[in-house]
Write a structure and sequence with these properties.
Layout lengths: L11 E3 L5 E3 L15 H13 L3 H19 L1
Helix pairs in contact: 1-2
Amino acid sequence: MEHNKDASSVLGFYAADGTFTPVTNLTARTLEYANRSKSELEALLEENIDAERYEQCAVIRDELIRRSAIVRK
């Protein structure tokens, strides 16, 4: 079976800032951040640091890193 790699046929989510995340890249942990903009994620990261929810901080940090890597390509 051959997969269609045409970008217009890929299912996914757009964040408020236009970042596209394909469904295949989502996990249960990152799904809740798929529709948030980079600035929303940064604000949420600060809130979680203040509340000492470091596991959530790591997930948000990873999402921000992933998005910045997409921009650089």
